[in-house]
Amino acid sequence: MAGYVLAILLCTGGNCDLVRVEPGVAYPTYDACAAAMTANASRIDEVAGRIRTEEGRQGETICLRDRLTIVEVDEEYEARISTIVRGSPEATASPVGTLARGRIARVTGTVAGTLWLRIALPDGRSGYVFGEHLRKLPVGGTPETSAAEPAETTRSAAVAPVPVPAPSPAPPPMATPAAPAARPGPSSTPGAAVRSIREFRDCDLCPAMVALPSGGFEMGSTTDPSEQPPHRVELPAFAIGKFEVTQAEWNACVAADACRYKPPGPAARDQAPMTNVSWDDATQYTGWLRQSTGKPYRLPSEAEWEYAARAATSTPYPWGREIGAAMVNCNGCGGGFDPKQSNVGSFPPNRWGLHDMLGGVAEWVADCWHKTYEHAPANGAAWEAPRCVLRVLRGGSWKSSPTDLTASARNFYDPSVRYPANGFRVAQDLAEER
């Protein structure tokens, strides 16, 4: 039976270490550990504060699974989506590699009482992948592929090492951001809008918003089980951020003492997308926007996000069936851009004037993760679930491959965990089409 210990998670960017609060003490259940955390909150805060001062890093107290029961197996699985391989079966554990979508991994064990799987790494060590990210292959089976998405079927050696991310930048002095200028694209790209779309901004440091018309579209695809079944969605008018939330916009919330997360490190760049934010951080920001402007800001639903990303198209990418070159910021998309240094608006917009819907940073949406679209809402609303433990990310990031950047591709992550490639954009209800 697994035990749980109290630990302080120290992070600089995506590089995290753990410090045990009570060496030698373990609790039989997570609830018992959480109760101990509450009962000893003052002492733990004192320890965490001292560590923050000494280490110069953010500290977060967590209950960590300490002892593992492994059920030995020897099976082959295919990665359903690109996923992180971690050093231990915890979402907060340090990455030791990545497993690209379509790759095959040898699973050597299952972690009892969890959804985590142990896989073999090329150097002989073991890593851990969240089981929902993989699908078991039948004996002698092959990965499920389509003509539009060729399989990458190398074995466990396909696990790529993950470099230690650089520290996240710290907030700069407050300044009013100017609207970023888009890189010019050819007239055949989505830069040519198909209808007049109204833009607005509710305050100097509020995100620029684009009011989208009501309408319907076919959500999902037949490419991946998580994107099935394709289904018709009808949405009312709403507004969505023209860009991902920038560091300058986030810092306005920090300056107002409404957003707790203050990225450590050197001065930030105002027009860079805000990164390394959790779903909880993103909802804290939208709550501040609602309170400070009186307008109904929120995260977009997954359906709204895909509707906005497609911009009245039905191809895998808003500009066609191929990724092309230098159209987005991703791993293997070309153009010679430093993937972590591109400002928002550095790539062509889609037909509705929205920038960076694909690539850049993966974007949190409001929905709870569901394995498929079976019984999904048809009205564009966010799809919630009781005791939701995973939230949806859309659009892929600068670390993603082109196959993970289609308008229909889905991913998920723990809502309380920060990751350097995750960011967000905001949405707003509209009383009527503007």
Q: Care to give the gist of this entry?
A:
The chain has 434 residues and is of the alpha+beta class.
List keywords for this structure.
single chain; 434 residues; 5 helices; alpha+beta
Account of the 3D structure:
13% of the residues lie in helices and 24% in strands. The model is unreliable at 143-158 and 161-195 (pLDDT under 50). The strands form six sheets. A five-stranded antiparallel beta sheet has the order 9-8-7-4-10, with no helix packed on it. Strands 11-12-15-21-16 form a five-stranded antiparallel beta sheet. The chain is globular and about 60 Å long. It is of the alpha+beta class and 434 residues long. The chain contains five helices and 21 strands.
Q: Extract low-pLDDT stretches.
A: 143-158, 161-195
Give me the count of strands.
21
The helix count comes to: 5
Helices and strands, in order, run as EEHHEEEEEEEEEEEEEHHEHEEEEE
Q: Over all CA atoms, what is the radius of gyration?
A: 22 Å
Helicity, in percent? 10-25%
* Biggest sheet layout: 5 strands, antiparallel
Estimate the global geometry from the Cα principal axes.
globular
Hey, roughly how much beta strand do the residues contain? 15-25%
Terminal residue distance: 58 Å
Structural class: alpha+beta
Q: How are strands sequenced across the largest beta sheet?
A: 9-8-7-4-10
Query: Overall mean pLDDT score?
Result: 78
